[in-house]
Amino acid sequence: MRSARWALALLLAAGAIGGGALAACFSSHEATTAVEGTCSINLSSGVPGSTVVIIQNFAFGPAELHVPVGGSVTWLNCDQDSHSSTADGGQWASPLLAPGDGFTQTFTAAGDFPYHCTPHPFMTGHVIVE
Ligand code: CO
Questions:
Q1: How many C-beta atoms surround the C-beta of residue 18 within 10 A?
Q2: What number is the average pLDDT over the span 95-120?
Q3: Which CATH number does the domain housing residue 101 bear?
Q4: What confidence tens digit (pLDDT) does each residue in 44-100 have?
Q5: What is the pLDDT of residue 59?
Q6: How many angstroms is it from 9 CA to the middle of ligand 1?
Q7: Which of 22, 45, 51, 121 is least surrounded, with the fewest CB atoms within 10 Å of its CB?
């Protein structure tokens, strides 16, 4: 029950309870709650230096983000299909994430790291560590 565990952990981390309508915007800079199926997180209550990328509608959102050295990024699959977060240069590779699953990568070196979804190469993004 990996999916349920992720959803619960993220809910606990966010201090958010219960349902609600699917939020229209997933900007990491706005107080936004996304609820869809098992995928639920309050994006305004993250750990400092950490960022969440929501996977939805076959896209990474935000597709480009900045994190400090030592920060981490969590990809959360809010889609109905399975996806991955796979660095183009091999720095990280998530397992195939089922709907509701998440994957966290910590970045210890500065750089611009493009990545993609292995089953859907048109899904791309990049993490800028600075
Ligand atoms: Co995909």
A1: 8
A2: 95
A3: 2.60.40.420
A4: 445 556 688 999 999 999 999 999 999 999 999 999 999 999 999 999 999 999 998
A5: 96
A6: 23
A7: 121
Rounded CA separation 128/42 (Å): 23
Determine the pLDDT at residue 51.
86
Is the distance from CB of 99 to CB of 39 less than 8 angstroms? yes
Cβ atoms within 10 Å, residue 88: 11
**Gap from CA of 117 to ligand 1 centroid (Å):** 5
* Structural domains in the chain (count): 1
Tens of pLDDT, residues 114-123: 999 999 999 9
User: Is the confidence at residue 112, as pLDDT, over 50?
Assistant: yes
CA-closest candidate to residue 99, choices 11, 10, 15, 36: 36
Whole-number Å distance, alpha carbon 20 to ligand 1 midpoint, is 26
Cα-to-centroid distance, 44 and ligand 1 (Å): 25
Q: How far is the CA of 95 from the centre of ligand 1 (A)?
A: 12
